[in-house]
Amino acid sequence: MNILDLSPDQNPQLAEIKVDSHRAYHGSFLQVEKDTVKLPDGNLVTREYIKHPGAVVILPLFDDGSVLMERQFRYPLNQVFLEFPAGKIDPNEDSLVCAKRELKEETGYTADHWEFVCTIHNAIAYADEHLDIYLARGLVAGDAKLDDEEFLETFTAPVSDVLAWVRAGKITDVKTVIGAFWLDKILKQEWQL
Fold first, then answer.
1. Which residues contact 32 (CB under 8 A, 6 or more apart)?
2. Sequence spans of domains, the chain
3. pTM of the model
4. Residue ranges in the chain whose pLDDT is less than 70
5. In what helix (H) or strand (E) does residue 90 lie, and over which residues does it extend?
6. Confidence at residue 58, expressed as pLDDT on a 0 to 100 scale
7. C or N: which end of the chain has fewer Cβ atoms within 10 Å?
């Protein structure tokens, strides 16, 4: 057995097979599906999960090694979070196009050089959401064009401070934690893109 072969076809002893499905909730942004699935032992169970269109995360790196960050209130947890710029992928939108759009809209910055970093799945137990992370360099300042319902503040910080904030529990947003770890490895030239 190849431990890295993750397809259900190659892992029938672990696969759950959809028997029935219906939409339990349809909102303007998210949908909740309620499926009946057959387990590997033949038993039937219910799986509820959120359908999400996907998102991007931008790691905006300045020439001096500092990064552009955001402070944004997140309603579900009733607090302000420190985050990298990010945003939802529109229907049929390429993720790199989305990353460029979101960086410009949220921060006013554009970038001359973009590199794909990785894809992460931040809530595998209850959502199909994926986030594509991009490194943006050659940043050029401009005017932000926030969405009508969007309020945030931008600031710059050295990557070392971002990592210290992760360690101290001041940054708990998973996309930002993972982005900070990637930046640390990239800047130390331990990981290549």
1. 23, 24, 25, 48, 49, 50, 51
2. 8-51, 55-187
3. 0.94
4. 1
5. none
6. 98
7. N
